[in-house]
Design goal:
Layout lengths: L1 H8 L1 H26 L6 H13 L1 H33 L25 H21 L4 H4 L4 H9 L2 H28 L8 H28 L7 H7 L1
Helix pairs in contact: 1-2, 2-4, 2-8, 5-8, 8-9
Length: about 240
């Protein structure tokens, strides 16, 4: 096991783990967004999806443990790699020195150098999202007796949540638009013929994530009838 410990402590090992966990989290984003998009199909479709999701508590618990474990590993590896880079270069983190000319830019000028910032914003968005939808912190009175679709509609139409969810979704989209391609390269999927396509797919994926997750708050603001399920609920009673 010493080789495994040594590998995980190495810079290459940490980047590999960060890539694997990042790809797993990208897969989670696809599944999660697909489920959320059922809100546009209708309240019944979304409520059925939510019911199926929570009907098997054991399976859901395993999935959540894997998910939070992947998040914890990804964040830890990101921080440890960043700290190591700062220590090695003994430079200010604002200006990163590199042998590559295309990376000799200020930290905030390129997507690959803003991964930490967009990751932290995305993490804040995730924590708020979990607090809202899973724990319902602060929403107990407003969400009492509501269906899952109605709960989602109430939360995403809140003005404060509109700002947080839109900014968080955009930051998350920027993060994965670079992260997906980098992760593929890190695990060895790197070829001059295919790498440009991988990076293009990565950017498209980032746009889908940003637009998809932010769309619910935007639609609730400008087209409130689309996600207003109160009438649907009253008819079903």
């Amino acid at each position: 096991m010493s080789w495994l410990t040594g590998f995980l402590k190495s810079s290459v090992g940490r980047k590999f783990v960060m890539a694997i966990t990042g790809l797993f989290l990208c897969f989670f984003l696809v599944v999660h967004l697909s489920g959320n998009l059922l809100l546009y199909v209708g309240a019944d479709a979304y409520n059925h999806y939510a019911h199926q999701l929570h009907s098997n508590e054991e399976l859901l618990m395993i999935a959540e443990v894997l998910l939070f474990g992947a998040f914890a590993l990804h964040i830890y590896m990101a921080f440890s790699t960043t700290i190591e880079n700062i220590s090695a270069r003994k430079k200010s983190y604002r200006v990163v020195e590199s042998k590559r000319d295309d990376r000799a830019l200020p930290l905030t000028s390129a997507a690959d150098q803003t991964m930490m910032i967009t990751g932290l914003i995305g993490l804040f968005f995730l924590l708020v999202h979990i607090s809202d939808f899973k724990l319902e912190n602060g929403w107990e009175e407003a969400l009492a007796g509501q269906s899952q679709a109605q709960k989602a509609s109430i939360i995403v139409s809140d003005f404060t949540r509109i700002i947080i969810y839109v900014l968080g979704s955009v930051a998350l989209g920027i993060h994965v638009s670079h992260g997906l391609g980098s992760a593929c390269q890190t695990i060895g999927f790197n070829h001059p013929k295919y790498t440009p396509t991988v990076h293009l797919i990565s950017k498209i994926f980032g746009v889908i994530v940003a637009v998809g997750f932010s769309s619910f708050s935007v639609v609730s603001q400008f087209f409130p009838d689309v996600l207003n399920f109160a009438e649907t609920a009253s008819k079903s009673l």
